[in-house]
From TrEMBL:
Stored Pfam families: PG_binding_1, Rv2525c_GlyHyd-like
UniProt key word Transmembrane: no
Keyword line: Hydrolase
Domain Peptidoglycan binding-like: start-end pairs: 77-129, 215-267
Protein name, as recorded: Glycoside hydrolase domain-containing protein
InterPro entries in alphabetical order: GH, Peptidoglycan-bd-like, PGBD-like_sf, PGBDSf, Rv2525c-like_Glyco_Hydro-like
Sequence intervals crossing the membrane: none
GO molecular function, one term: hydrolase activity
Protein source organism: Shouchella rhizosphaerae
Ranges for domain Rv2525c-like glycoside hydrolase-like: 295-456
Length: 769
């Protein structure tokens, strides 16, 4: 405890704690802190006549603040002396009298801060005294060269920047001061410490032997804090400095010309570098179609980052599109990674498991780097408390999978500082830097990590029409080259049950697809439809299916039957999650309808006749089950009856068993993965991939693809379809009811069935990890 700090705390509480709007008394513990500095700031504002004091020393406080000098005696001196004791500069007493001791303490502070030494306290000095900033080396990483630089910057530019720390640690304040220095030396109007368009226009090019000493010295300081020692700090641009500058340029993927041009200035001072420099890579939430691939090729891009999961997830068909157009791809994993509460050791294990499943399902080759996102301005304390444990969990799960034969590597997407800490902890192999967040604590005043693979520098649109897409411009270091092809030998250790039980089905499906491909003149799109035509032909071939799923190619079906027999002779498709034998013929009919793509707008939702082939058709038929069971006294309500019959697993009669519910969700998910405008889209590959891993989160994937990732939409869509009078839907509904002998229902009965559908699906959603 410091006795003089304790006296200052008591002084503040006695003289100001009772004043209007001052706030709570400070803790009297004899320890200096921001709390006492803020309290002294508010005390100063009260003495200045400011009615609503606040913690910040803002423009009004600065304008009203008096200049103090030796001989003064009043309340302002008490506040100054209190601040000096708390800041570590002895004023020689705590008396309210500005004597020689106070003047000596002020001169000491001025000398250490690097500003003119005169013992006078003007508003800049008073403001600095009321801050916790240090003016001497602090901490194990403090660097005396940085202290000298900070003092130099204060001395030259403090009237613009305020008096900034001189503690030997490169920080956002020091970075801001360097930009101010460039602006002032380049005569930029309205210097503000931000590297904007005016600064770009005024920034000079500096070369070997340049005589602009102040500019050269700023470059030297900027090089030093970026870990490239220029050889001296005297403002002389010599050959040693040029050699180190070329090394810096090479690290930042700039032309190694030894000239400080605009791009080099910005790479020295801004986390994006010059964001208008076009990189070789992009990341995007947009699905890459052939049209968008053409846009990217025309724009000179080579690398594409896409998400493994979530609303913008990469599909196998899209991956085929990227590879067939010559792109290399790197995967990104992000789930709710935009706040610190998400991150923990256990969450790291869960997310790594999810990422491995997705990467394996897409057949990313082993050793591919997966970038796990830290998508917010994370602080040092949060890195230590949450981010490091999270990546410990990620590493633990990846090691477990490596031991089981599924080996991926770990990268991080995040601010510079978080990337650097994780690299130093050996928790990541490469970093994908979120550089365009230039104001982040973790970017401003921090250097690029040594293992950076990608630097995200600008968000914008490119292309037009169907080729238009939103991209983040990425500078590529070539450390991580991504991948350019699938590896079909990739196998997850989690698919053993699937492989064990379903190998006969998959092998026969492969034969069927190859046969269909041969009978479609090598057109994958036609082959996909022919496979589905055959698989649905035995049980889903009546006239009611034609407007919903299209006509069956009977010629092909007859030819396929001679080769493979009836679809019912196919081996069983087994679902390891539920232990259910899937009704793959029902799933094929639903998927055939989805690919037939009959959609139109009704009010504020998009309707599709394909829904009649899947979940909606099953709901229509289950209405009679529920009404009859309720009427016969087997259930207390239509809702409870429908809740039982939707996705039931018992032997009780019902038209919407579990295998149909699973098949409906699977058809939605496989249909999303298939792109019928993509000639490489392959039904066998998508089904094989999906039934190896994708089925484990089938309800969440279907909720995202068809129900706006909102469980309430299961109810909304069902209720609208069952009750709307829109002609096309009402006609299709009547045809379906007639074909399956379903009687009319009331709106209340429809509401009960829709609620039951929502609640059954919600139950499954909650079961999935």
């Amino acid at each position: 405890m410091d006795e003089m700090v304790l006296q200052v705390q008591k002084f503040v509480n006695v003289n100001y704690a009772h004043r209007p709007n001052f706030g709570s008394p400070v803790e009297e513990n004899g320890r200096t802190s921001w709390e006492i500095m803020y309290a002294l700031t508010r005390a100063l504002q009260i003495e200045l006549g400011i009615e609503n004091p606040v913690n910040s020393f803002g423009p009004t406080t600065y304008r009203l603040c008096p200049t103090l000098r030796e001989g003064d005696e009043h309340e302002f001196v008490w506040i100054l002396q209190g601040a000096m004791w708390c800041k570590g500069y002895s004023p020689g007493g705590f008396t309210g009298k500005f004597g020689p001791g106070t003047a000596a303490g002020v001169r000491k502070m001025q000398e250490e801060a690097g500003v003119p030494v005169n013992g006078i306290v003007d508003p800049d000095i008073f403001k600095a005294m009321l801050r916790m900033d240090a003016y001497r080396a602090v901490g194990p990483s403090a660097d005396e060269n940085v202290v000298d630089m900070q003092r130099y910057l204060n001395g030259k530019y403090y009237k613009y920047t305020g008096i900034l720390p001189a503690d030997g640690n490169y920080s956002r304040d020091t970075n801001t001061a360097l930009i101010y220095g460039l602006q002032i030396e380049s005569n930029v109007a309205g210097a503000n410490g931000h590297f904007g368009e005016g600064t770009k226009a005024a920034t000079p090019t500096i070369k070997l032997g340049d005589s602009r000493v102040n500019h050269v010295r700023l470059v030297q300081y900027a090089m030093y804090v970026n870990n490239y020692h220029p050889g001296n700090f005297n403002g002389t641009f010599d050959e040693a400095m040029q050699t180190r500058l070329k090394a810096f340029q090479g690290f930042h993927m700039l032309p190694q010309n030894g000239i400080v041009d605009l791009n080099t200035w910005m790479s020295l001072l801004v986390s994006t570098g010059n964001p208008d420099v076009k990189g070789k890579g992009i990341d995007t939430s947009n699905t890459i179609t052939h049209s968008r691939a053409e846009t990217l090729k025309a724009d000179g891009r080579e690398m594409v980052g896409r998400y493994l999961t979530g609303s913008f997830a990469l599909s196998s068909a899209e991956l085929n599109t990227l590879f067939s157009n010559g792109f290399r791809v790197f995967p990104i994993y992000q789930r709710f990674a935009d706040n610190v509460e998400w991150f923990s050791y256990n969450q790291g294990i869960i997310d790594a498991r999810d990422a491995v499943r997705a990467a394996t399902a897409l057949k990313f080759p082993y050793e591919t780097v997966i970038y796990f996102a830290v998508d917010f301005d994370v602080s040092l304390s949060q890195i230590n408390s949450h981010i490091i444990p999270y990546f410990d969990g990620v590493n633990e799960e990846i090691r477990r999978n490596r031991n089981a034969g599924a080996s991926y590597r770990i990268g991080v997407y995040g601010p510079r500082y978080a990337c650097t800490v994780l690299m130093n902890q050996n928790l990541t192999v490469y970093s994908f830097v979120s550089g365009m967040s230039t104001g982040f604590f973790g970017n401003k005043g921090h250097v690029l990590p040594l293992n950076w693979a990608f630097n995200q520098v600008k968000e914008h649109f490119i292309g037009s029409g169907s080729g238009r897409l939103a991209i983040d411009n990425l500078i590529v270091s070539n450390r991580d080259r991504g991948v350019n092809a699938k590896d079909h030998s990739v196998e997850s250790p989690e698919v053993n049950d699937y492989v064990q039980y379903n190998k006969p089905f998959i092998e026969k499906l492969r034969e069927l697809y190859n046969f269909s491909y041969e009978n479609s003149d090598g057109d994958n799109r036609i082959a996909n439809i022919l496979v589905l035509n055959y698989l649905r032909s035995e049980n889903y071939n009546s006239s009611v299916w034609t407007p919903i799923a299209g006509a069956i190619d009977s010629t092909f079906v007859e030819t396929a039957e001679r080769r493979f027999g009836k679809p019912s002779s196919f081996p069983v498709l087994y679902d390891p999650v539920t232990g259910t034998d899937m009704d793959f013929m029902h799933m094929a009919a639903t998927l055939n309808a989805i690919l037939f793509q009959k959609t139109f707008i009704i009010g504020d939702f998009t309707a599709s006749l394909s829904d009649f082939a899947g979940w909606l058709g099953d709901l229509i038929t289950v209405v009679d089950n529920a009404k009859d069971a309720y009427k016969n006294g087997n259930f207390t309500s239509v809702y409870s009856a429908a809740r039982h019959y939707i996705g039931h697993t018992s032997d009780a009669a019902g038209t919407f068993p579990l295998e149909d519910l699973l098949g409906d969700m699977d058809a939605i998910n496989i249909g999303r993965a298939l792109d019928m405008n993509d000639r490489t889209s392959n039904l066998f590959e998508e089904m094989d991939t999906y039934y190896r891993l994708g089925y484990r989160r089938r309800f969440k994937a279907a909720a995202r693809a068809r129900f706006d990732y909102n469980r309430e939409q299961f109810y909304n869509e069902a209720k609208r379809y069952l009750t709307t009078s829109q002609p096309a839907i009402a006609f299709a509904r009547s045809q379906f009811k007639s074909a399956f002998n379903v009687s009319d229902w009331t709106d209340n009965e429809a509401d009960s069935v829709a609620q039951a559908f929502r609640d059954v699906c919600a139950e499954w959603l909650d079961k999935e990890d």
